[in-house]
Amino acid sequence: MRVLLAGGGTAGHVSPLLALADRLVADDPSTRVLALGTATGLEARLVPARGYPLHEVPRVPLPRRLGLDVLRMPVRLGAAVKSAGQAIKQVDAEVVVGFGGYVAAPAYLAARKARVPIVVHEQNSRPGFANRLGARLTTWVAVSFPGTPLRHAVRTGLPLRPEILTLDRAATRDTARSKFGLRPELRTVLVVGGSLGAKRLNDVVPLLAADLAARDVQVLHVSGVGKEVAVPTSSPGDCPYAVVPYVEAMELAYAAADLIICRAGANTVSEITALGLPAVYVPLPIGNGEQRLNAEPVAAAGGGLLVDDARFDVEWMRQNVLPLLENPDRLAAMGHAAAGFGVLDADQRLADLVRAAAASR
Prior knowledge:
Layout: E1 2-6, H1 11-27, E2 32-37, H2 43-49, E3 54-56, H3 68-91, E4 95-98, H4 104-114, E5 118-122, H5 129-135, E6 140-143, E7 153-155, H6 162-165, H7 169-179, E8 187-192, H8 199-204, H9 209-214, E9 217-222, E10 241-244, H10 250-256, E11 259-262, H11 266-274, E12 279-281, H12 290-300, E13 304-306, H13 314-325, H14 328-341, H15 346-359
Parallel strand pairs: 1-2, 1-4, 2-3, 4-5, 5-6, 6-7, 8-9, 8-11, 9-10, 11-12, 12-13
């Protein structure tokens, strides 16, 4: 099979693209994959590093207000569609798969013009413009979360990295904790706000350091590159509070954790539910509200707690998180519920959908 994969700009688009590419090639090594992306997105580094060729297209951001950018957009979009059409011819694509973002819309339009089947994968519960467009041009639509408002949607889940799929948290726990300077025998809270960090989490959680230490709970806090965290100078009972700006191998941080306090991006929610990790979700309060929608079904299933950013403070933590940490049965039940929501074979489900779409040509 010959396939063009379109997605870029953020890890949320690039990671599932690479996971799907790996699955397609693993299923059939003769599969030819070409990725479509921009010169400035993460895909420019990550796609070639994984061994796949990248065809660059011009970046076409959607204007947020009236002005010259609105007048320039048709010209920019036309150039991007032309470039995407060249990529379709280059690989002689039997199917085009889009993951949203700046490069997906040109890919969908070029595929429509070339009469090549389109598969849309939407990572968030609330789809963006590109995937809303793509879903109007095809009946092959995959989503990560139930209830995503796209026509013909089938829930495949979000294709995940092999490091997540093969992680044995119990077997790796002691090694992972030691790597971060934590004590292997203590319960551990992981705090992570994504690669850029989360100011609310960075400000609030350290204020509970003494309360956590008094309960023999240690903390691994991923602050985000360049973000400051007021590290406690001492902890009762010698409970570590480790702060790191960034973790390259997040699977090790997951292995160290008994509970995670995090944002609710699609990748984060999909990874920690697949691993059966109980979580406190604090959705990013800006954007179109997709993070809250991502976490709502998990919380409703009992796999985590959901709290608005503005309500997440010391008092809320004392009322909700500290009692949770003192109740191992409830933590275990929450982890079990999270695992029930997670999807471990999303890469295979999406690959099957892609093959079906290609066969329909």
